[in-house]
Specification:
The complex is a heterodimer of chains A (200) and B (190). Chain A contains 7 helices and no strands. Chain A has 200 residues and is an all-alpha fold. In chain A, helix 2 packs antiparallel against helix 3 and helix 5 (101-139) runs antiparallel to helix 7 (152-194). Chain A is elongated, with a radius of gyration of 27 Å. By secondary structure, chain B is mainly α. Chain B is built from 8 helices and no strands. The chains are: A mainly alpha (200), B mainly alpha (190). Chains A and B meet through helix 1, helix 2, helix 4, helix 5 and helix 7 of A and helix 1, helix 2, helix 3, helix 5 and helix 6 of B.
């Protein structure tokens, strides 16, 4: 048996580094209860909100205009997509934490890359949507033009709201992208450290 | 009537099973906390120097263990399971941590990372080797830090390999490097 005096000294010193905080178990139990209550309440509110939106969708569906049908269908699709997304996110939330550090960091890298890609796609889609709406308006200007002339104030308000919304959305997207890129750099740094590339 | 009785009976049975399962989980969780509580605190120390934030981190680690415990099927040892979660949570914390805005009183109270190498002038003041070791560990790159902490916690090479997701040979190599880095940080001359 080889004696490792240095390691023994370090271990002895390390064992005195920290004790669990006072009333650690009680605080954790309280936090678990709080989190469970929040989870139940959150889901309950989500269900109520979804039901409300669905009732609203059915209500406007009965207004029998083609716009009403479009809105109702859009809302229903949105509700089901968001529900599926929420369930998907909740499904394996605990899992990454239980992986080995290497697997956890690799998964983290994949997730951040996917988020950045999703953000980029969303920006393209929103640009495409604006162009599509503009083209549609131009193509159907004879019908829409009459409506604009009939209710100019409403249309100006809508236009101003749309124009004002754009910088907010762009600023938010740019902020999120910057944050995700910083996160990606951090994860890459950890991965490099793990591969022994940047560790002194 | 019979059908209604059978449904009520079955749901009562289900509730009893769920509640039993929950109680067993709570017992296991309490045991894990009392067994590994000190280790989790020490591990949190390597990721966070500020006392208040560290306490939060310790609680977050415990919470993550609770969330994952229901799905733990013994694919690895309980010890590996706990250390994996603690380290992964610590890594996320390093990223999420904002630049510390500490009040002055807390700065005095907390165990701030200080330059672990003893300067001649301050040598007399910094006699506490424990503080130096801790500060030296906190100054290491994350992966070295993890290796050193696992080694100090007394995990075998096989266990460290399981926690980190690397081979045992790799563990030996990395431990040597991490140990050298720690010695450098402590200012130990070979």
């Amino acid at each position: 048996m080889i004696e490792d005096r240095e390691l023994d000294i370090w271990r002895e010193q390390w064992s005195r580094v920290a004790e669990p905080p006072a009333e650690f178990q009680r605080k954790v139990q309280e936090r678990i209860k709080r989190q469970e209550r929040r989870f139940v309440l959150g889901n309950l509110l989500t269900v109520i909100a979804f039901l409300g939106i669905l009732i609203f969708a059915v209500f406007i569906r009965h207004q029998s205009s083609w716009m009403g049908t479009g809105w109702a269908t859009g809302i229903c699709v949105l509700v089901f997509v968001s529900t599926a997304y929420r369930v998907w996110i909740l499904r394996g939330m605990w899992r990454p934490q239980t992986q080995s550090t290497r697997a956890f960091v690799e998964l983290w890298h994949k997730r951040v890359t996917a988020r950045i890609r999703l953000l980029r796609i969303s920006i393209y889609v929103s640009l495409g949507w604006i162009i599509f709406c503009a083209a549609l308006t131009a193509a159907d200007w004879t019908t829409i033009g009459q409506n604009v002339r009939a209710h100019p104030k409403d249309w100006v308000e809508l236009l101003v709201a749309c124009v004002l919304m754009q910088p907010v959305i762009w600023y938010w997207a740019a902020w999120l992208r910057r944050r995700k890129l910083a996160e990606l750099n951090e994860v890459k740094k950890i991965l490099d450290e793990m591969d022994g590339k940047s560790v002194p | 009537m019979n059908y209604a009785y059978s449904v009520t009976d079955r749901s009562a049975g289900l509730v009893a099973i769920v509640s039993e399962h929950r109680q067993a989980l709570e017992k296991q969780f309490a045991r894990i906390l009392s067994e590994y509580g000190a280790a989790i605190s020490r591990l949190a120390f390597s990721y966070e120097a500020v006392a208040g934030v560290r306490e939060e981190l310790v609680q977050e680690i415990a919470l993550a263990i609770w969330q994952a415990l229901a799905h733990f099927r013994g694919e690895c040892s309980e010890r590996t399971f706990v250390y994996r979660i603690a380290h992964n949570r610590g890594l996320s914390h390093v990223w999420r941590r904002r630049p510390p805005h500490q009040p002055l009183e807390e700065l005095e109270e907390s165990d701030q990372p200080v330059d672990p190498r003893p300067h001649p002038d301050e040598q007399a003041a910094r006699t506490d080797q424990r503080v130096r070791l801790m500060s030296a560990i906190q100054s290491l790159p994350v992966t070295h830090r993890q290796m050193i902490v696992l080694m100090l916690e007394g995990l075998s090479h096989a266990e460290i390999a399981e926690v980190m997701g690397i081979t045992e040979n790799n563990v030996a190599v990395r431990l040597n490097r991490a140990r050298k880095a720690l010695k450098d940080a402590l200012g130990v001359r070979p």
